[in-house]
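TEACHING EXERCISE
Course module: macromolecular assemblies
Task: Read the component lines below, then compare them to the predicted structure of the full complex.
Student: A.B.
Group: 4
Components provided:
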Amino acid sequence: MIEAFVHAFLGILTWPNLLAMVAGTVGGILVGALPGLTAAMGVAVLLPLTFTLDPLIGLGMMAGVYNGAIYGGAIPAILLRIPGTPAAIATTFDGYPMTQGGRAGPALQVAAASSAVGGMMSAIALMTLAPPLSLVTLAFGPPEMFWVGVFGLISISVLLGDDAVKGLISAAIGLLIAMVGIDPMTGHERFTFGNINLVSGFNIVVLLIGLYALPPAIMLAEEAVVKGIDRATLRFSGEALPIRTLLKLWVTWLRSSIIGIIVGILPGAGGNIAAFIAYNEEKRTSSDPDSYGKGNPAGVAAAECANNADNAAAMIPALTLGVPGSIVAALIMGGLLVQGMQPGPQLFRENPDVVYGFMIQMFLTAAMLFVFGGLLFARYFAQVLRIPQVVLMPMIIALTVIGVYVINNSIFDLYVVLGFGLLGYAMERLGIPLAPATLGLILGGMVESNFRRSLLLSQGDWTIFVSRGVSLTVIALIVLLLAYPLLRNRMRAWRARVGSAG
Amino acid sequence: MVKIHDRIGAIVLLLVCALAWGRSERFPTDALVFPRMVIALLAILSLAMLAKTFFGSRATDSDRPFFINGLRFALTILAILTYVFAVSVLGYFTATIVFLPLMAFGLGYRRVGPLAVMAVSFCGAAFLVFVTLFERPLPPEWILRIF
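Instructor-supplied answer key:
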């Protein structure tokens, strides 16, 4: 394994790779700094480029966008109390009060350093846990892989948001769309409606761009905010915190990184959940809990460290089991699948340079936040908030169109992306989360093929799904997950009764 | 108001399930089982979503409209459709250099100078990245077809 890392590291040390990581990190910070745009959108728009680039260069750019965007959300969160990404909501609790107290510069520094540390710790967890975990899946047969896919779909449907029914609907929609095209086992066309363009099914990248890039752009057009943030609001003083002051946060960083890594491994629980849990833990264990919410740098550090620690850890189940821990991990996995790289132990065996190289890139792009998150760059990145949304929106559409067209040189794909953009818009407005549908699209083929293979192996005997220890364990976890919303509602009702009685 | 949207959404999903179920009748048995399981699951969940709109708590309802601005939504979709059609007929850069400033102007941004700079810069950057660097073919420009 060490040899593989060394070999992969040497492969990364090329100018195109380094430039791709820098460009991705800078681009990611800009995307994350803009409210309304997300890391998922940034990665979705970049996906078509991975076809034209060497896979490692494309992955390096995506690693940069991922780490950069999650940090970038802290900039407007601290300066304006507007989180640039959902993961930065907890950063506003103490970040904005620090700005109000004239300490915007130190707040941005703490955010950058904490994001870098969290991202690097997460990448180390990915490097140490993913390779041995991938070998565990060698014990998994088709029934186990079927249940693992179902577990991933149910966990993201139930843990994300408050409405498990809508989450499961989203997953089912994704599974249904994934079936369009030729059935790989029988060669029969399914749901093509006689359209030759649908015989190969929908291109996953086109779908992902439609679902993630278009709805925010359409909403920007609907809101039609003509003015950007004025320059005066974005000014802050340039005093820098001494390094030893930052290093005093090491306990916060360690605790928040562990929280972020654990949350990252769970499918469905994203950076915003990690940030909230870490912030609450930091406040709970503090000797001065009343100072939180009033400009305590440790509050900013906990939130930012945890939300970045979620990043690489979310790739652990993605690379080993094919079940991504976050929506961006799902998009990156989609990019790998399109390149013909299947998650699991064969990925580490057949493409070691790519997979180990990607892990190193996650580490390096997190470390780059020490540089690009500095006060000098933050001052420039903040200027992107001056661009009016009505000017941004057509650029997003134009970038989407060219990105989708270059995948297959197909005008049909442009209409597909618009169709799925409208679907994504309708789902968002109805409160149906997009993440389970994305996972359904990515896992649909795997879940179905393992389901049918299991039945072939057992010659039609359905008890194969409940006759093995690993399968039963995963089924038990699924049952617990399905019971979770009921338990959560009961707990909330009990707390409300206790609170009103008190 | 959200409940009305959920009702409409659930009914649409049920119609999709009915259509998909009917369509799946043509599939061979092996290719049929999994799709029908998913369609049945989607139908059951849609019924659950529909039922919640009748029996769920009123406290969870809200006045949030489905569209942020219905007129702008319709015009935006129309503009994007027109842009995509224009890309196929006129070429990417011709369509884009017209779409970018027109769309922003239509949404209320009135400073022509910055819009012109934005349109030219974007097209220049797209040309450098996609045509020069990646050598990706784009829909041919109408003016090149004439000559």
